[in-house]
Amino acid sequence: MLDADNGHKSTLIKAVTNEWALLAYRFTTGGCALLMTWWVLDLKMATQDMRKDFNASLIANEARISRLEGQMSVFDNSLRMQTRSFEAHETTLQNLWSRIYDLNARFPSSSPTNR
Fold first, then answer.
1. For 9, how many CA atoms within 13 A lie in the half-sphere containing its CB?
2. Residue 74 belongs to what domain range?
């Protein structure tokens, strides 16, 4: 765009065609792009670190729960075994007491009520 009266370029054309202004514009744009790229990559790395930490905590929690389930299983099996043992022992005691009553019934003279 040339001025009609004296042939000089307008200030807009001078600013747009100025090599130093274009260099500063490109430098600023490139710097902003570089800064944004760095920021996005840093955000991506932080997200990956958070995911790693989260997965590690999930694995640790799963291992802890597994260990607790194993301990509960051992406790449950031990309790069942003790219950069976008590049931068997109770049956044995019942058998002993029934034998004592049978023996007592065979020998009525030895009972303390007949003396």
1. 8
2. 11-110
- pLDDT tens-digit map of 22-39: 888 899 999 999 999 999
Could you tell me the CA-to-CA distances from 6 to 12, 13, 15, 107 in Å, in that order?
16, 15, 19, 149
By percentage, how much of the chain surpasses pLDDT 70?
86
3-state secondary structure of 2: strand
Residue 22 CB contacts under 8 Å (≥ 6 apart), including other chains: 16
CA triple 18-29-13, angle to 5 deg: 25
Phi-psi region of 107 (alpha: psi -120 to 50; beta: other; left: phi over 0): beta
Residue with tokens 């200030």: 11
Structural domains in the chain (count)? 1
Is 115 within a domain? Answer: no
> Is residue 53 assigned to a domain?
yes
Is residue 4 assigned to a domain?
no
Q: Residue 53 CA to chain centroid, in angstroms?
A: 9
Tell whether 5 is covered by a domain.
no
Nearest-angstrom CA–CA distance, 49 and 43: 10
